[in-house]
Amino acid sequence: MQTRMPTGPRRPPAWPRRVPRSIPLPQTTLWENLAISAKRYPDKTALLFFGRGFTFGELHDSALRLAGWLQHDAGVKAGDRVILMMQNSPQFVIASYAIMRADAVVVPVNPMSQPEEITHYVTDPQVRVAICSAELAGRIDAACGLLPQGERLCRLLVTRYADCMPDRVASEEQPPPAWHDWLFADPAPPAQATRWADALARGLEPLAARAGPDDLFALCYTSGTTGRPKGCMHTHRTVMHNTIGISLWGGTNCAAEVTLGVVPMFHITGMLFAIHGPIYTGATTVIMPRWDRELAGRLISRHRVSHWTNIPTMIIDLLGSPRLDQYDLSSLASIGGGGAAMPQAVAQRLEQQFGLRYVEGYGLTETAAPSHTNPPDAPKLQCLGIPFIGTDSRIVEPGTQRELDVGETGEIVIHGPQVFMGYWNRPADTDAAFFELDGKRFFRTGDLGHVDADGYFFLTDRLKRMINASGFKVWPAEVETTLFRHPAVLEACVIAARDPYRGETVKAVIVLRDDAKARGVEAGEIVAWAREHMAAYKVPHIVEFVETLPKSGSGKVMWRQLQERESGSG
Hints:
Layout: H1 30-40, E1 45-49, E2 52-55, H2 56-72, E3 81-85, H3 90-101, E4 105-108, H4 115-123, E5 129-133, H5 134-145, E6 155-159, H6 180-183, E7 193-195, H7 196-201, E8 216-222, E9 230-235, H8 236-249, E10 258-261, H9 268-281, E11 284-287, H10 293-303, E12 307-310, H11 312-319, E13 334-337, H12 344-354, E14 359-364, E15 369-373, E16 386-387, E17 392-396, E18 410-415, H13 427-433, E19 434-437, E20 440-451, E21 457-462, E22 467-469, E23 472-474, H14 476-483, E24 489-499, E25 503-512, H15 514-518, H16 523-533, E26 542-545, H17 559-567
Parallel strand pairs: 1-11, 3-4, 3-5, 5-6, 6-7, 10-11, 12-13, 13-14, 25-26
Antiparallel strand pairs: 1-2, 8-9, 14-15, 15-16, 17-18, 18-20, 19-20, 20-21, 22-23, 24-25
Helix pairs in contact: 1-2, 1-9, 2-3, 4-5, 8-9
């Protein structure tokens, strides 16, 4: 599909060679991707977890048996929603496909969620069955205790990460000591709970598969800007499009490739790049349950990882390791990600030191991850890239939806085969999220951006994140990108602070590099430097140093949390 662009002088987007503009989609489900790969590569390693390998054949067999348990013992019927709550692990992958094979719907839940938050994921989609890891079973049980009897879970399946680890972990793959408590956790499961091993041991055969490509595959919850999380309805077809698309775009269509699966699997990006993409192509995924820069460096070196989708903060952290020179990153052929802009200084170091061009992309839960991404051979920094395969994206004026010209800032809107079907049981929110333009249904992202003359899209900021300083519009992401160039700054988050004269002013919350801490860098130095590198109205008037920035389970900086604290509402 040819993306329509606004009028004005421009050049055609740098479309990757050998990548089609649109793709025909198979009339099959995501489950069948695993079934096909298990036939093609039954003895090939699909997953590696602390050195223990799982073949495609083993994955397929385990998923079938678990699907049988879900249907026959847990009473899961076609279309039922099933919670899946755990860290990245082989069990997460197996459970995802088992739920699919049972013709049910995956409800992935952030393992950082607390009992009061979990109650929403139980009641909103009306879940009766959940699958979780041992260290989270008590939290789910506590959540059920907060609910009326008729709204509680009926069955809980509990697994231990250690059950999928080797008896002896090699020194290069040893988890950090801080992980041991939850990796090896084995508390007594709550009443009505079944252990994972016991469910598989039942050896129950699932019923004949009935789901088709347009049936619901997952309810992926997104926090949004206000209110309680909303469930984004994705079908097998919407996720299948990007599953196939990412393999074509980045050249990740070879079973010989090795992926580092560290982006959280409960998040749409991790789900796509660490589970569905590699299983579709027959590639191997090296699973990391959480981020740790030293373990990542060792795993990339040991398993010759070739493809790594990540959050830029992971790259910043890895490059800051004092052991970086001990790691062999030469196997990496493709590296990229999204969630935040890659600082130019970091990207330049990555290219100069390792010959790697960081490929940034953009997408949302509502778009099954990528709606835009940079061409691998012609990426631009701090850039969302160009509209993905089969995608039509525009820049429109907020409120009027009038299409804007090259260089003008407006809301990014998206039409494409990967766009979700709507919000679960929220027709008003669904209606508000879409509008029609040129006979097409476009999704309103709530993100502000512009498109350049080459057809590349750039993010300005969230529609509601703008700082209004004496009438001057300040976009925090732009200030953050500049601050990253300061040699003392490791991470930065820019928020609005009250100001009696300007109404709002710019505040920077900064994590300093270790050497900067040692030499006692002060706020005045940052402010003085900023005055030399950005317009006066953008310069932070307040600088706060912190040890860490709050991050979500997917690695994104939680700027709203900092903003709410500053505003006194958090």
